[in-house]
Design goal:
TIM Barrel; 2 domains; about 30% helix; about 375 residues; 8-stranded parallel barrel; binds pyridoxal-5'-phosphate; alpha/beta; elongated; 11 helices; about 25% strand; 17 strands
């Protein structure tokens, strides 16, 4: 089946593009000897894990469910970080994860000995208090008062011998110059701990936009080598976005066109339900064969079938007039989309399809009324 024959709305994972991203990440591994994990938070379509597992070292999770998925579907290294771990979950987590990162020394004190008995390598997340992202405050773990990571002032030297590794995660869609800046802060504040012989690994988190065209990979590799050589640690990076960047689409159909002063397309896809980052972040998703408002001859506001007035994706222009029944293709829709879907308004979840290297599409999963009902009682 071709992409234009898929039922709508439908996410499509572009396996050619996914593989291209993985080749880039693999080269960083081969060049430096670092390890790279898939951050499942961004992309959890496990039917692609066999492919991803050919290139990367494993998975990282934000909690038990993602950790289980990584364990079951990739089965390679399995790391987990969460601001807190529940007593009811720590047993299973330590069965399936060989690396566990705490967010505080109180969590570490509570669970470190148990983890050690189970042979789990443990780390602490630090906060280098070095903000490098200007305009996305909700994605800045270094914002004042942030709950994420231990600041130098709260670092417990008396517990440092329990640690096997140190973790930081401060970037979001950033280039390696910001990593370099962050590393200076990490070294200045936590370098003396990184030098301790029990510290065997450094996890530099995600937010590295490694597969973006203008990403400076040489600088990343310099940063990785510098940390490896100075501190004699295994370096991990755990990108989410970069793994599946530009490797997916959301196909939608124009259901109606309403003109109450603004020509508006009613789509069977929704920002609120199917691309929540458009409203949360916010950002404007790329759309195939379109321009900015008024850049091309025909401008429309793109909106959805929900009753939320603000469920607007943005204003886009086209070379030709849009007709009811036309299909539109949102791009860069593999990441932070399917993992964040919801059924607000009783909207149906989009189907999920894969597109192979020849452009041939097949539907992996369709959804219905059951998904809506099952979560509500
Ligand atoms: C979100 C997150 C990642 C992945 O971030 P991307 O921006 O998708 O690369 C990695 N590690 C941690 C701890 C995270 O919270």
């Amino acid at each position: 089946m071709k992409i234009n024959e898929l039922p709508t709305p439908c996410y499509v994972i572009d396996e050619k593009k996914l593989r291209e991203n993985l080749e880039i990440l693999k080269k960083v591994k081969d060049d430096t000897g670092c390890k790279i994990l898939l951050a499942q938070k961004a992309f959890s379509n496990f039917f692609e894990y066999p492919l991803i597992g050919q290139y990367l070292d494993g998975t990282t999770a934000s909690g038990l469910f993602e950790a289980k998925l990584g364990y079951e579907k990739m089965g390679k290294e399995n790391h987990v970080f969460a601001p807190a771990f529940k007593e009811s979950e720590i047993g299973e987590l330590t069965d399936i994860c060989e690396h566990l990162v705490f967010n505080s020394f109180s969590q570490l004190e509570k669970y470190a000995d148990f983890c050690k008995e189970k042979g789990v390598s443990i780390g602490i997340r630090v906060n280098p208090e070095c903000s490098t992202q200007g305009d996305h405050a909700i994605y800045d773990p270094c914002a004042p008062g942030s709950r994420l990571g231990v600041t130098l002032a709260n670092f417990r030297e008396d517990l440092v011998e329990k640690l096997d590794g140190i973790h930081f995660h401060t970037l979001c869609e950033q280039n390696s110059d910001d990593l370099e800046t962050t590393l200076k802060a990490v070294e200045e504040k936590f370098g003396k701990y990184l030098k301790l012989p029990n510290i065997k690994w450094l996890n530099m988190g995600g937010g590295h936009h490694i597969t973006r065209n203008d990403y400076d990979i040489d600088r990343l590799e310099c940063c990785i080598r510098h940390m490896q050589e100075t501190y004699d640690v295994t370096v991990y990076v755990e990108p989410g976005e970069a793994v599946a960047l530009n490797a997916g689409y959301l196909v939608t159909e124009v259901m109606d066109i309403v003109d109450n002063g603004i020509r508006t397309l009613i789509l069977d896809a929704s920002a609120a339900c199917h691309m929540p980052d458009v409203l949360e972040m916010p950002y404007r998703p790329p759309l195939k064969d379109s321009g900015e408002a008024d850049e091309k001859q025909y401008t429309y506001r793109l909106s959805s079938m929900t009753c939320l007035a603000g469920d607007v994706i943005g204003n886009y222009s086209f070379d030709h007039e849009i007709q009811i029944g036309d299909k539109l293709y949102f791009e860069d829709m593999a990441i932070y989309s399917m993992v964040k879907n919801n059924t607000f308004n009783g909207m149906c979840l989009p189907s999920i399809a894969r597109m192979d290297e020849n452009g041939e599409c097949s539907v992996v999963k369709t959804f219905g009324y059951e998904e809506f009902v099952r979560r509500l009682g």
